[in-house]
Amino acid sequence: MNANVATSRQALKVLIVEDTKTITNLLQVYLMGWGLEFFDAPNGVVGLSKARELKPDLIISDVQMPEMDGFSLCAAVRADSQLHATPFMMLTSLKDEASRQKGNLVGASAFLNKPVSVDDLRSKVRVMLNLPATNR
Q1: Which of 133, 110, 44 is nearest to 15 (CA)?
Q2: Where residue 4 falls among pLDDT bands split at 50, 70, 90?
Q3: What are the C-alpha distances in Å from 88 to residues 8, 64, 71, 102?
Q4: pLDDT tens, position by position, 29-60
Q5: Average pLDDT value over all residues in the chain
Q6: DSSP 8-state code for residue 105
Q7: What are the strands, taking DSSP E only, across the chain?
Q8: From edge to edge, which strands make up the β-sheet containing 110-113?
Q9: Which residues of 57-91 are buried (b: 16+ CB within 10 A; e: fewer)?
Q10: So where are the chain's domains?
Q11: Does position 99 have pLDDT exceeding 80, yes or no?
Q12: What 3-state class would DSSP assign to 81?
């Protein structure tokens, strides 16, 4: 579906699963101006429940969280027949190659290191949501 058509009907939904509210707020600021509707969850358990309820267009998740980490959340999303094709971006302060490989193995669409580069974040979100390049 063309993103312009989608935004004229309803905003594209982005679920941010992050245990640090400051980072959640910062991500929303970075992605403002694209007509996105944001939802948040403090951990993977709540995130999975919200994802099943909302059917978001994109999930952005921290890796290291209490109760259910981002790897487990991504694997659960990929195993869910209604969510399996949802773009899933992982954010982490883990810098090792094994973590990146684990993210790929569970089906992450993108893997960005913290602190997040605003340009990298916007570029990847634009591609994942099929937004025109004229958006910031």
Answers
A1: 44
A2: very low
A3: 24, 15, 11, 14
A4: 999 988 999 999 999 999 999 999 999 999 99
A5: 90
A6: H
A7: 12-17, 36-41, 58-62, 88-92, 110-113
A8: 36-41, 12-17, 58-62, 88-92, 110-113
A9: bbbbbbbebeebbbbbbbbbbeeeeebeebbbbbb
A10: 27-128
A11: yes
A12: coil
Q: Is-contact 54 39, C-beta < 8 A?
A: yes
Average the pLDDT over 100-113 and give the result.
91
Q: Which amino acid is at 35?
A: G
State how far Cα 28 lies from the chain centre: 11
If one counts every other C-beta atom within 10 angstroms of the C-beta of residue 31, the result is 22
Task: Return d(Cα 98, Cα 100) in angstroms, integer.
Answer: 5
27-128 domain in CATH 3.90.76.10? no
Overall average pLDDT of the 8-26 stretch: 91
* CA nearest neighbour of 70 among 54, 97, 48: 48
Max CA separation in the chain (angstroms) = 42
Q: Which two tokens stand for residue 89?
A: 């971006």
Coil, strand or helix at 59:
strand
